Records
---
Amino acid sequence: ETGVTQTPRHLVMGMTNKKSLKCEQHLGHNAMYWYKQSAKKPLELMFVYSLEERVENNSVPSRFSPECPNSSHLFLHLHTLQPEDSALYLCASSFGYEQFFGPGTRLTVL
Amino acid sequence: GQQVMQIPQYQHVQEGEDFTTYCNSSTTLSNIQWYKQRPGGHPVFLIQLVKSGEVKKQKRLTFQFGEAKKNSSLHITATQTTDVGTYFCADPSSGSARQLTFGSGTQLTVLP
């Protein structure tokens, strides 16, 4: 247990559905991240929220929409996804340079 | 964007053999991190190297940062089945310090 929780752990959705992934940390960290991990591809940083800035990977499609209402919670809103979006979505948080990852949400888009 | 190349992609070793994974960058890195991801698990931070030529040890794991700060390696001595997993290097030098660029990882299988 790293102190970073993610729900749901598994999600199957159709291309027309709207769903949200949730991440929560109570480690007192001040930055939170979304990563995408696909088979045979490196971990890809999608979004960063920190006290100083929000950073987006410009290659992330607009069908992924992040929300960070406070320093402990992070959401990833999903709509009209494609089958190629099926992957493990990992949330992480940090205070310094070490990032703490959650267990991930395994997403399957049919 | 900046990329870190990691080799090999896969490595099978017999238990007790040594293992090394390498990470290379075309540009100078300010520092480098290493993570381990067990099968079905999530990445777990192992270490950060900062200084040129730095060598750090964690039990059977030895981490090195090149003199030019363009490469790094992770060496495991006398592998055990508990070492199974994927080892990633990560470059925190891209953009702000909060952004990590991960290598493609080396998937280690240890045969008993």
Note: Chain B has a mean pLDDT of 93.
---
Amino acid sequence: ETGVTQSPTHLIKTRGQQVTLRCSSQSGHNTVSWYQQALGQGPQFIFQYYREEENGRGNFPPRFSGLQFPNYSSELNVNALELDDSALYLCASSFEGADTQYFGPGTRLTVL
Amino acid sequence: SQQGEEDPQALSIQEGENATMNCSYKTSINNLQWYRQNSGRGLVHLILIRSNEREKHSGRLRVTLDTSKKSSSLLITASRAADTASYFCATDKGAAGNKLTFGGGTRVLVKP
């Protein structure tokens, strides 16, 4: 167990809808990163939050947005869902300057 | 886009045998990490090797890094059925924040 939790575990949405995924970081970690993992592929970096500010973004459109709260929990929001958004969404927490990230179990999103 | 390629894509071995998988990457890195993923769930950090290191051991794991060839290998000795999983390499360029770039993974099946 890494101490990182994510909710919900599974989610089914239809194309065009909006979704919010949640992540609770390991205690003491002030940095959270989000990754998208399509079936059969490696995770791809979406963005990172550090002390409630976005601290880097991967090659994802603006309809992917995030928030980090003062208690360092985090949300990933995706608007105007597309079929290709179907994937496992992983969050990972770490402490500033540390190399190792601790991953949550993921949220599997299916877009119909 | 993914930083690296992993080879082989899939590996099937008998319990007790060694498993070797390779990772190649494209740009200079600060460190390279290996993660394990069971059945499409969260990633578990296995080992980290820095760019100025050539070899590292952790239990039954041995990792090598050749920065001149931009490649790394992961060796699992005396494999067990519980080692059945997907294994991913991830590189960190060392820019602000630790944003990992993953390879496509090697799926390992250890038969009892």
Note: Chain B has a mean pLDDT of 91.
